[in-house]
User: Fold these one by one.
Assistant:
Number 1:
Amino acid sequence: MLMKKREMAVELRVLRALQGRMVFSPRLERQLRNSESGQVGECSFDELGARIDDCAVRLNDLVLVVGGKLCQIDALYICDGVVYLFEVKNWMGAFDLMDGDFVGLSACPLAQLKRSRMLLEELLRSMRVSVRVESRLVFVGTGVSLYGLRRDDPVLLPHQVQGYLNELRIRSGGFLRDSDVRLGQRLANHHVVNNPYQQLAKYCVEDVAGGVLCGECRVRMVEYSFLRLTCPRCNIFEHKRNSLERTILELDTLFPPEKQRVHQIYLWCDKIFSKRMIHDYLKQ
């Protein structure tokens, strides 16, 4: 049972909306690549997890505050009275471990996993819930190699993930427990919607260019016909209504919506769409 679906992180939504509208520094380029890669990896894990929806409760992208400390959980499953905490990484390359620590990294993911587990256990105790918590660091990208990995390290490599989830199904007997559903609902109620620690890009209205940009290559689209726009680079066509919807969403992501918005959207879209079309879209 999927109890909390994964939403695109605000950080990634902002970066995608800014792409093509301002000059990215190397730091922002790296942040965008990392955010994109993380989103792809988490969604890949979600697809595997969906196969056990009949016997497990799934909460994706859960943000908790425990004792004033923030706990971000990529995926949390509840199955047969056990809580499973997953930290998902879509890394590529070779990494060395020594005594359970990643060598040369500023933040060890295994240490982060341990911290998240301790905070989750603290929250469960405060809720007077006595359940076992298991945690795993999950690698979903096939291009990763780990040297020095010990047998008892809580790590799942790409070829082990499906087998691990199959074991959960076997342990559960293939059915969902009502107590797991109730616990999932209680944890979902603790989710913090506005994450105060998100690393959002810095920008101001003077730095951000308007216009209707291609959803693929982020080049400014041009009018092709009365009903369609086209991208001069991709040569793709898009209905004006779809272009308008996407561009308004980008505007709302970057700048808080204003009550009187028709003229603002008209200018933001470089006057490609008539004010009447914008008004009709907002009304609908």
Number 2:
Amino acid sequence: MEFTFQIHQRITVKVFLQNNDFSKKSISAIKRNGALLVNGQPVTVRHLLVHGDTLCIQLPREQPSSNLVPFKKPLTVLYEDEYLLIVSKPTHQNCAPSRDHKHNSLVEQVLSYFQQYSFELTPHIITRLDRNTSGIVIIAKHGYIHHLMSQTSVDKRYICICHGKVKQQGIIEAPIARHPDSIIQRQVHESGKYAQTMFHRLKSKSQYSLCEVQLMTGRTHQIRVHFQFIGHPLVGDDLYGGKQDIYNHQLLGCKKVSFIHPITKQKIEVIDEYDTIETKFNML
């Protein structure tokens, strides 16, 4: 992966890189295994650029962790370009390997996808989802793109089904902390970190509500904890009081994402048309 810039001022390569959001880690990696070319000639970061120069930055190739085992299974690709891959993740799949689920993760599935098309790329997951939450996951094709996306505001919209009839719309503000009796479970507690969730009800029936949710903060299990806190736990979420006979996982999915692309500067909006949450609501 490489980037080309036309230079319009006197500036060192190092300062130019810093001004264009190349992190110290990225600059070090380029110095070790990448390349810096000015008008086709290799230079160091101390080189002084002048008006009219062409700077080509060749990012180093990355090696995926040896702990990842490529998982060959078709991906549901929603968007792809030279820098990003956006997919729809099913329930019952980890985004990355864990102690209890060491393989068959989404990142290993993406690694197999890259290898299938002879792309020498290493996947970097930007937006993670819980194992049993479905929907959109954004993946960077290089650590540098991951760094840029970490500085990019991503508007994520979720859809969920909760028990009972919630009000038409609302804002939940309640701090979230780790539960003292669990390494996984979270709870609303005054010692926790500030968390805010916005929602509006799309549909309702006697026992259930279908809601669209927007996270204003990004705490672990935030939607699940907040809906339990207001007395409307997510259907199927037995960790947070929403146990249901038909479904053994929370009915929650990331339905839509939008952001300004860090490279092209264009607005990207992706909707997961494969989402089944609304269909499940109609079947309840």
Number 3:
Amino acid sequence: MANVVVVGAQWGDEGKGKIVDWLSERADVIARFQGGHNAGHTLVINGTVFKLSLLPSGIVRPGKLAVIGNGVVLDPWALFAEIDKLTAQGVAISTDNLMIAENTPLILPLHQDLDQLREAAAGKAKIGTTGRGIGPAYEDKVGRRTIRVADLADDETLEARIDRLLAHHDPLRAGLGAAPIDRAELTARLKAIAPKLLPFS
């Protein structure tokens, strides 16, 4: 079995998506192993333009399995918005051709909040993030307080993970002049997305 890995050595805009799409014609499985839903990739196939931010480039090719690995930080709401957009373009996406690692960490609204709060507080020293919460989600992954796809399958586990996460984020928000996280709203949003996301894991 031959494997090919495409690694970007810059900060982006290298054309990784186009290379992966070109290679995917000869592959059975196309896996995305890192990153989040930032700038993304534009593919043109037989005159049709596909814009991807999160899904692996091979998803637009019939008969391929696309995999989102646990090195990716996954915004589930952005994922399903992207799936809806591609479905409207005639791309069939289901559990038959998309798989998500069950230990993939999630980007939550609180990560986006923190990303944007920090940028605003930095003023002229801001670094110019996309504000989509990718960096803060990676911080929580490394800090072992992230919520992962599989956590959505068990209410008790999910509640414990939320407790740990908010114990970290609420003090950060206070320091930036923001209100605490609405725990009930966050829990409700996660439980609402769970039935859509879990079948892919």
